[in-house]
């Protein structure tokens, strides 16, 4: 990560405060910096993809380590005058027309606009070994990691509504797919027919734990004593936006239609229900990959700039009209 040391005071008022320094937040900050806006990005240092070996599907950056991508992004934002502040935001509020965020250190950062790019929290199944192997040989997204486990023995651990879908989808990367029903209800007859048509096995019974040897996944152990060899396990996490800290501002979160979690409701270009507050990346789009989050951040940054410009335009129009009217009064009086 960047070693740049930032000096700032609570009295400084930025054009935009961005909470979250991942791909979405940094991309928005880059765009805003290029628009000559003053930007502060507050980063808690907990990127969602930190356990992953690389970022995939990101044109020109495929396979790059997540920490390297963020370091480059930070440097680019700073090159346009953006400020990176390392710290945890514990509260968000209003100060007149401005927005304030308070850090755990007690520092307060103020901005005319607020962008939430805090990402989401992956809620993992409570099965021993899952959290320890997460992002390595325990996966959830075939587009992010399917290539890396191609032609391997892959198990789908059914813990949510997308399990059958995952079983069908991962079949594209391997012919050796096993669906473990675990705690899920038995799939419908229609789902089972599709799964059978794809040559995927279905195993009933609860998975007790993942088996690991020499820091490599070896398989799953079931409560009935069976152990089934595997090279990778697919899980279905719950996805919940990191949004609690913005509740006092009235930022609305809603349940995703899939039942997978909650996200911040947004309209055009990431605008939330609170005027002056935007949300972008996984906080607003649970399914966005890194590339999509970066693209959304760039566009939202441009739209925030337009919002600021409109305020400036109204101010300048008022001043222009006041001067014009005063001059006309003088002419009339003469």
How are the SSEs placed, and which strands pair?
Blueprint: E1 13-19, H1 23-34, E2 39-43, H2 66-79, E3 83-86, E4 89-95, E5 98-103, E6 108-116, E7 120-123, H3 130-133, E8 138-139, H4 142-145, E9 154-157, H5 163-170, E10 177-180, H6 189-197, E11 201-203, E12 207-213, E13 216-222, E14 227-229, E15 232-234, E16 238-241, E17 253-255, E18 261-264, E19 277-279, H7 290-333
Parallel strand pairs: 1-2, 1-6, 2-3, 6-19, 8-15, 9-10, 9-15, 10-11, 16-18
Antiparallel strand pairs: 4-5, 5-6, 7-16, 12-13, 13-14, 17-18
Mean pLDDT: 93
Helical residues, percent: 25-40%
Number of helices: 7
Cα(first) to Cα(last) distance is 66 Å
Give the overall silhouette.
Answer: elongated
The Cα radius of gyration reads 24 Å
**Total beta strands:** 19
Q: Percent of residues in beta strands?
A: 25-35%
Pattern of helices and strands: EHEHEEEEEHEHEHEHEEEEEEEEEH
Low-pLDDT stretches are: 1-10
Secondary-structure-based class equals alpha/beta
* Biggest pleated-sheet summary: 7 strands, mixed
Task: Describe this structure as you would to a colleague.
With 334 residues, the protein is of the alpha/beta class. It is 28% helix and 27% strand. The protein has seven helices and 19 strands. The chain has helices at residues 23-34, 66-79, 130-133, 142-145, 163-170, 189-197, 290-333, and strands at 13-19, 39-43, 83-86, 89-95, 98-103, 108-116, 120-123, 138-139, 154-157, 177-180, 201-203, 207-213, 216-222, 227-229, 232-234, 238-241, 253-255, 261-264, 277-279. β4 and β5 form a beta hairpin. Mean pLDDT is 93; it is low at 1-10.
């Amino acid at each position: 990560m960047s070693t740049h040391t930032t000096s700032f005071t609570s009295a400084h008022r930025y054009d935009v405060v961005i909470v979250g320094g991942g791909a979405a937040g940094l991309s928005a900050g880059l765009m805003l910096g290029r628009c000559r806006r003053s930007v502060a990005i507050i980063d808690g240092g907990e990127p969602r993809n930190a356990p992953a070996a690389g970022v995939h599907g990101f044109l020109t950056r495929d396979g790059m380590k997540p920490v390297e991508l963020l370091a480059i992004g930070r440097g680019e934002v700073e090159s346009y005058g953006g400020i990176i502040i390392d710290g945890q935001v514990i509260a968000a509020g209003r100060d007149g027309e401005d927005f304030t965020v308070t850090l755990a250190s007690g520092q307060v950062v103020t901005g005319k606009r607020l962008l939430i790019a805090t990402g989401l929290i992956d809620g993992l199944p409570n099965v021993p070994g899952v959290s320890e192997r997460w992002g390595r040989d325990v996966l959830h997204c075939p587009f992010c990691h399917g290539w890396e486990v191609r032609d391997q023995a892959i198990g789908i651990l059914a813990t949510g509504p997308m399990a059958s879908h995952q079983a069908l989808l991962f079949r594209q990367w391997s012919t050796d797919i096993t669906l473990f029903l675990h705690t899920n209800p038995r799939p419908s007859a229609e789902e089972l027919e599709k799964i059978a048509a794809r040559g995927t096995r279905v195993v009933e019974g609860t998975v007790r734990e993942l088996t690991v040897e020499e820091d490599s996944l070896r398989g799953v152990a079931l409560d009935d004593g069976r152990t089934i060899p595997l090279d990778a396990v697919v899980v279905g996490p719950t996805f919940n936006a990191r949004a609690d800290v913005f509740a006092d501002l009235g930022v609305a979160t809603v349940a995703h239609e899939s039942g997978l979690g909650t996200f911040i409701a947004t309209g055009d270009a990431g605008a939330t229900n609170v005027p002056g507050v935007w949300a972008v990346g996984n906080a607003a789009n649970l399914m966005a990959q890194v590339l999509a989050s970066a693209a959304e951040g760039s566009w939202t940054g441009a739209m925030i700039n337009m919002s600021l410009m409109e305020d400036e335009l109204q101010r300048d129009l008022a001043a222009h009209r006041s001067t014009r009217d005063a001059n006309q009064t003088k002419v009339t009086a003469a």
